[in-house]
């Protein structure tokens, strides 16, 4: 794979955030390699190897590659068929005082693996911040609609009422779990460190004339200079590819959450109860001018499936690593890792755009409730009759007959549910006719949904977003506009 092509994917070119696209760019990758070589040289010099101040200074002042240096690296890689050595050669040309000590004692995975861990940690941080913003936006939506009754569904069949806000808390709770899982994965990350070709540190032991303490200190110093709290205690040539499994698992889980939210919103769009944003000039169909397709949520579902599948790549790659390593992981990971982060980034930004422009149609919601609520209220009607001195079994039979008549109107004749009109016309129900409006008030069928929203937002969402790292991200955010 050409040095200039490494990590480039179609996803990064249009939809990914600038930060995430840059993280997996050739420029960022090459600079990070140079930073790692610099850290190694600083630590080796500190521990007594003959590395000059001039060498260190030349490395420090040439961390960024110019277009000309990228050309040199590409030509070198084509000739040498080795991307790391191509970049060692290129770095040495602009830092000639350091040419002889760049990569001293290291194997290629010193830069490739340690850089990947840096990218993974940074990418997870970006995702945490994006996820926090999405949770915040959906929390505002939940609060605004905390008490708006809506028909609940089980098996996608009408069930008891809930509220629009309560339904949104189901989405938010799962996103909070994703926030927790991604943070755990990030905070658990270690560094490969300075381990040598098969993980034995033999080359560094030779450099320091058999001084084991200096080799251990070198590992510790480079790890600290690179910003990690610890290095994995043992490795083969690479850090264990099981780490990639641990990283992609929470991203795949996030993909499942996003797919669920996107699907719910697509179903609500079909019901015309809640819709994603739709610009005044947006076209839903080239043939059907009236259509308002939920294209953003469809994109979320499409990419989320891809995100979930990428985890399988990490599982398979880890499982076939022989002994200290084989190279059949490399090409796969150069695609899988960037795509996972870029895809997750796009999924979150798209969902955020949706959450910032959700449109609720209370009249449609009320109409659907009116179609189903009379059947749900039959038990309340029976109990009200009993309270007025009526017989429960007789009331039950009356309601049963009228309910079947109303169901016939709805299912066989395609008419509106007229159960309540039938109740009003039947003299048997005269004792409770003045109470019918109260007995059919949707707000009396939503249980503690509004209170559950309030408590959930206060006791769970608030503390989760109070983290200083996330508060800073929330303070810096504006509304997201997508090029759809």
TrEMBL record:
<comment type="similarity">
    <text>Belongs to the lyase 1 family. Adenylosuccinate lyase subfamily.</text>
</comment>
<feature type="domain" description="Adenylosuccinate lyase C-terminal">
    <location>
        <begin position="373"/>
        <end position="457"/>
    </location>
</feature>
<dbReference type="InterPro" id="IPR008948">
    <property type="entry name" value="L-Aspartase-like"/>
</dbReference>
<comment type="subunit">
    <text>Homotetramer. Residues from neighboring subunits contribute catalytic and substrate-binding residues to each active site.</text>
</comment>
<comment type="pathway">
    <text>Purine metabolism; AMP biosynthesis via de novo pathway; AMP from IMP: step 2/2.</text>
</comment>
<dbReference type="GO" id="GO:0004018">
    <property type="term" value="F:N6-(1,2-dicarboxyethyl)AMP AMP-lyase (fumarate-forming) activity"/>
</dbReference>
<comment type="pathway">
    <text>Purine metabolism; IMP biosynthesis via de novo pathway; 5-amino-1-(5-phospho-D-ribosyl)imidazole-4-carboxamide from 5-amino-1-(5-phospho-D-ribosyl)imidazole-4-carboxylate: step 2/2.</text>
</comment>
<protein>
    <recommendedName>
        <fullName>Adenylosuccinate lyase</fullName>
        <ecNumber>4.3.2.2</ecNumber>
    </recommendedName>
</protein>
<dbReference type="Pfam" id="PF00206">
    <property type="entry name" value="Lyase_1"/>
</dbReference>
<dbReference type="GO" id="GO:0005829">
    <property type="term" value="C:cytosol"/>
</dbReference>
<keyword id="KW-0456">Lyase</keyword>
<dbReference type="Pfam" id="PF10397">
    <property type="entry name" value="ADSL_C"/>
</dbReference>
<dbReference type="InterPro" id="IPR019468">
    <property type="entry name" value="AdenyloSucc_lyase_C"/>
</dbReference>
<keyword id="KW-0658">Purine biosynthesis</keyword>
<dbReference type="GO" id="GO:0070626">
    <property type="term" value="F:(S)-2-(5-amino-1-(5-phospho-D-ribosyl)imidazole-4-carboxamido) succinate lyase (fumarate-forming) activity"/>
</dbReference>
<dbReference type="GO" id="GO:0044208">
    <property type="term" value="P:'de novo' AMP biosynthetic process"/>
</dbReference>
<dbReference type="InterPro" id="IPR020557">
    <property type="entry name" value="Fumarate_lyase_CS"/>
</dbReference>
<dbReference type="InterPro" id="IPR000362">
    <property type="entry name" value="Fumarate_lyase_fam"/>
</dbReference>
<dbReference type="InterPro" id="IPR022761">
    <property type="entry name" value="Fumarate_lyase_N"/>
</dbReference>
<dbReference type="InterPro" id="IPR004769">
    <property type="entry name" value="Pur_lyase"/>
</dbReference>
<dbReference type="GO" id="GO:0006189">
    <property type="term" value="P:'de novo' IMP biosynthetic process"/>
</dbReference>
């Amino acid at each position: 794979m050409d040095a200039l092509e490494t990590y480039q994917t179609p996803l990064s070119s249009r939809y990914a955030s600038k930060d995430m696209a840059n993280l997996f760019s050739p420029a960022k990758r090459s600079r990070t390699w140079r930073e790692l070589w610099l850290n190694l040289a600083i630590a080796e010099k500190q521990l007594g190897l003959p590395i000059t101040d001039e060498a260190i200074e030349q490395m420090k002042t040439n961390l960024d590659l110019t277009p000309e240096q990228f050309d040199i690296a590409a030509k070198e890689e084509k000739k040498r068929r080795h991307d790391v050595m191509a970049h060692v050669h290129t770095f040495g040309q602009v830092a000639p005082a350091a040419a002889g000590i760049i990569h001293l004692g290291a194997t290629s995975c010193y830069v490739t693996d340690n850089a990947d861990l840096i990218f993974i940690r940074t990418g997870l941080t970006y995702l945490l911040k994006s996820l926090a913003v999405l949770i915040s936006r959906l929390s505002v939506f939940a609060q605004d609609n905390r008490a708006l009754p809506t028909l609940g569904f089980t098996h996608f069949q009408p069930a008891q009422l809930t509220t629009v806000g309560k339904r949104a808390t189901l989405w938010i709770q799962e996103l909070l779990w994703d926030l927790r899982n991604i943070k755990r994965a990030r905070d658990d990350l270690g560094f490969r460190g300075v381990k040598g070709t098969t993980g034995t540190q033999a080359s560094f032991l030779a450099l320091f004339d058999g001084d084991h303490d200096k080799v251990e200190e070198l590992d510790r110093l480079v790890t600290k200079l690179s910003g990690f709290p610890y290095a994995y205690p043992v490795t083969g040539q690479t850090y264990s590819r099981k780490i990639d499994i641990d990283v992609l698992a929470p991203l795949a889980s996030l993909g499942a959450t996003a797919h669920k939210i996107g699907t719910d919103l697509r179903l609500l769009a079909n019901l015309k109860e809640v819709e994603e944003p739709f610009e005044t000039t947006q076209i839903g169909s080239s043939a059907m001018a009236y259509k308002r397709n939920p294209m953003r949520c469809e994109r979320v579902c499409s990419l989320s499936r891809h995100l979930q599948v990428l985890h399988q790549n990490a599982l398979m790659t880890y499982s076939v690593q022989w002994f200290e390593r084989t190279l059949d992981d490399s090409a796969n990971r150069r695609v899988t890792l960037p795509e996972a982060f870029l895809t997750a980034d796009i999924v979150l930004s798209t969902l955020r755009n949706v959450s910032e422009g959700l449109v609720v149609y209370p009249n449609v919601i009320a109409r659907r409730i009116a179609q189903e609520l009379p059947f749900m209220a039959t038990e309340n009607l029976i109990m009200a009759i009993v309270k007025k001195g009526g017989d429960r079994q007789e009331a039950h039979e009356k309601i049963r007959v009228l309910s079947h008549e109303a169901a016939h109107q709805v299912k066989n004749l395609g008419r509106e549910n007229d159960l309540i009109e039938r109740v009003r016309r039947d003299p048997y129900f005269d004792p409770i006719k003045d109470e019918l409006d109260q007995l059919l008030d949707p707000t009396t069928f939503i249980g503690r949904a509004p209170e559950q929203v309030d408590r959930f937002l206060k006791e769970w969402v608030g503390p989760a977003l109070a983290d200083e790292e996330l508060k800073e991200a929330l303070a810096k955010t504006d509304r997201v506009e997508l090029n759809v």
